[in-house]
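Tutorial handout. Part one gives the primary structure; part two gives the three-dimensional structure as tokens.
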Amino acid sequence: YGESGDAHRLLATSDGIGPGDVPPAWLLAADVVQAGPLHPADVVPEALAGARGLVGVDLQGLVRGRLGPCDVRDLAARWGRTATVVQMSASDVPGLFGRAAPATIRQLLGAREVLVTDGARGAVLATARGARRVPARPIDARHPRGAGDTFLAVYLAARATGAAPPAAATRAAELTATMVAEGAVPRRGLG
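Part two.
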């Protein structure tokens, strides 16, 4: 992290996670599966096809350095067909969808739920019922690394335990603010 934001330098990669790499029994047993690809070839969306529970993905890795030929819009669309919840940061939207609004992105992807996080400005949740802003609690941001992963994890955990999308997004915003301020999500926070 620096003045210009978050910078990554990927020196090498392993083979991506693809179909057959995740045991089908795991996909059937999991209430939640969270994917956070670090680059476009890291996790193939079809590797998580057939999951019984909620599947969430953060698309941030798709806009990082290109590793060979990769159509990121096609890859994002494949994630939209596989994942229940697709998340991206507001800074990733232009590289993936231009000026499209979250509700339009949800329609383009065919995803049930789309989250667009925007740091201290909160997030936008888009579902079939429309889009709504989820405010962020003002904090002293001392531990920003992992905020997006935390937001998605808390959102998925809340959805898996029966919370409606707006309530899950509000809980995710609150607990992510706690994590960014204090360095950890309190144990009691996940229910």
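Part three, for discussion. Strands lie at 32-35, 54-58, 85-89, 113-117, 123-127, 130-134. The radius of gyration is 16 Å.
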